[in-house]
Design a protein that fits this description.
The protein has two domains: 223 residues, Citrate Synthase, domain 1 (Orthogonal Bundle); 101 residues, Cytochrome P450-Terp, domain 2 (Cytochrome p450-Terp, domain 2), CATH 1.10.230. The chain has a three-stranded antiparallel β-sheet with strand order 1-2-3. The longest helix has 26 residues. α8 runs antiparallel to α13, α10 crosses α16 and α14 runs antiparallel to α15. It contains 16 helices and three strands. The radius of gyration is 21 Å and the shape is globular. It has 372 residues and is mainly α. Bound molecules: carboxymethyl coenzyme *A. The site of carboxymethyl coenzyme *A has 18 residues, from loops.
């Protein structure tokens, strides 16, 4: 047996009552509730409350929670100035990282406690909605605004991004926010936990998470999968592209494979449903057809190794149909994941706090005398 665990594979660093994953059977639940049932029937606010505080809210708790989020939709003046002054080609996730770090600069004295955390989290949910909506506005040539609260989080967000939206789009956004809300402790949540374990504040911990989310092996996969479909170009080119790039081992199939799942990612079902429902233009239908053909070839080739389609394969198609530019996809993943990351931080710091400080086995040179 290896003395180290590369990639921290099969290393457990906390107990959690948040997300249950059975990677063999393709089951995922938030606090016991099936993920697709929540995504189809519930709302982002209710599920956020469930994750953060343990149970679904009653009507009074829900109203208070929504009010606390909505009181925090205004973007601070200095964040607006930063956004306006960032280079035009700054990428969306880099902008989110910058705004979170700027916010962290006034959090130095933050003290974790159940009481403080339950006030801080809705503040952050409101703030991040505003940050991401305004990043989207900048990226699509619009002006910076203070979002106006509508009936629910996903409608407020879509309205802030695009000024108008349909009921199907709001439903899809709501489901996407729930499906991506938490996934136990992937790289980004672990990065946030490492930071929070030093008792650094929540905004700094979120900034750490966002930096880890960036890479193509993790949060960048939805964008990668979508760009892969664009590169293929037409359904007629799927097989040729697959043989030349994947069968030959030149590239990894993006949107396939997972550290935990050995079967289909359970979140795929609802994303695929919305991808089919919302792909209406010839270009969207073309991309969807490419994706379906590619998925078939991927499962045929890799299924026997336990490598199946993951959630990022279809989520980009949904985000595109909602009107988001491709370089917003990872940032949307980030927006959805804020609740899960904060719930893990609360669970860890409030009940299991211990500085995360692993070791490395030294295998370098023995003692050498320094000679001038
Ligand atoms: N395409 C081709 N081969 C693959 C793929 C893939 N997508 N995924 C895994 N493999 C192969 C890999 O080459 C290796 O083969 P061999 O044993 O012959 O060397 C074997 O499967 C095991 O791969 P691994 O990299 O050791 O497994 P891992 O647990 O580190 O991989 C992963 C997880 C997500 C990094 C990987 O599956 C991957 O690179 N996928 C493509 C990127 C992607 O879709 N990422 C999104 C992940 S889900 C959402 C999220 O967490 O953000």
């Amino acid at each position: 047996m290896s003395e180290i665990s590369p990639g921290l594979e099969n290393v457990y660093i906390k107990y959690t009552a948040l997300t249950y994953i059975d990677g063999e059977k393709g089951i995922m639940r938030y606090r016991g509730y099936d993920i697709n049932e929540l995504a189809e029937k519930s709302t982002f606010e209710k599920v956020s409350y469930l994750m953060l505080f343990g149970e679904l809210p009653d009507s009074k708790e829900l109203i208070n929670f929504n009010d606390s989020i909505n009181r925090n939709l205004r973007l601070d003046g200095y964040l607006k100035t930063i956004l306006k002054n960032m280079p035009e080609n700054a990428d969306a996730l880099g902008l989110l990282q910058t705004l979170l770090s700027a916010k962290a600069s006034s959090e130095i004295n933050y003290k974790y406690s159940a009481d403080n955390d339950s006030k801080k989290v809705p503040e952050i949910l409101g703030n991040v909605l505003s940050m991401v909506a305004n990043i989207c506005r900048i990226k699509t040539g619009r002006d910076i605004i203070d979002p106006e609260p509508l009936n629910d989080y996903s409608s407020t967000f879509l309205h802030a991004c695009f000024d108008s939206f349909t009921k199907d789009q709001a439903d899809a956004m709501n489901s996407a926010l729930i499906l991506y809300m938490d996934h136990e402790i992937p790289a980004s949540t672990t990065a946030a936990l490492v930071t929070a374990s030093t008792l650094s504040d929540m905004y700094s911990s979120l900034a750490s998470a966002v930096t880890a989310l960036r890479g193509p092996l993790h949060g960048g996969a939805a964008e990668g999968a979508y760009r892969q479909f664009q590169e293929i170009g037409s359904p007629g080119n799927v097989e040729k592209w697959f043989n030349e790039n994947i069968v030959n081992g030149k590239k990894r199939l993006v949107g396939f494979g997972h550290r935990v799942y050995r079967t289909y990612d359970p979140r795929l079902k609802t994303f695929k449903k919305y991808a089919e429902m919302l792909s209406v233009t010839p270009e969207q239908k073309n991309i969807l057809e490419i994706a379906k053909k590619l998925e078939m070839l991927g499962v045929e080739k890799f299924g026997k190794k336990g490598i199946y389609t993951n959630t990022d394969f279809y989520s980009g198609i949904v985000f595109n149909a909602l009107g988001f530019p491709v370089d917003m996809f990872t940032t949307l993943f980030g927006l959805s994941r804020v609740t899960g990351i904060l719930a893990h931080i609360m669970e860890y710091v409030e009940t299991q706090e211990r500085l995360i400080r692993p070791r490395a086995i030294y295998n370098g040179k023995d003692y050498r005398e320094y000679k001038e």
